[in-house]
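Aggregate trends can hide what the representation actually does to any particular protein. The sequence in question and its structure tokens are set out directly beneath this paragraph.
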Amino acid sequence: MFRPVDSHPGLQALEDNWLAIRAEYDSLKEVATQYSPTGWYWIVLRYHTLYMKRRELAPVTTKLCEAIPGIIAYSFTRIKPYGYVSPHVDDDSGDSGMMTGNLGLYCSGSTGLNSGGESKQYQEGKVWVHDSNVEHFGWNTSDKDRACLTFSYATRPVDFSKSVVVPFIMESLMNEGVKNVEEDSKTS
């Protein structure tokens, strides 16, 4: 279920620059929004056509993620000590073609992800990806926060028109205050 860093262009650059990415996470971690009551937090920088203004505060992360072919979303994510991410799929459209990756930023103790029955431990400075259409869940059984750069990209055109999750997340981000990419292109 998991794929290595060399499975897609642009991923090795994340590993090569992981300390700069971690420094940007450190500067933004206090603005994290709780995504679930189980201890999962995120700092969204981009989600589909919604570009968060805080991307300007993470220029290295933004530049590297935007260079990944097919990039759709990227966020800093955190799981609090003894927290977890419930089983879910990121792409509920039923149209496989989405991959989700993680770059470990702070990963001490027992922190990991299970995708399709295969488990993997997070490692600082390391990237791995999995199919977003496969059920997955994460955990942090350590006494410290687990932090990652989490990103999603399409390996081919994906039809999100049947998705329930995508519009729901976009609406919640709109309530947070975002900048739509269509507005950007009209003013530049």
In short: The first strand starts at residue 2 and ends at 3. The helical segments are 11-16, 18-28, 59-66, 165-176, 181-187. Confidence is low (pLDDT under 50) at residues 178-188. Residues 81 and 144 are 5 Å apart (CA to CA).
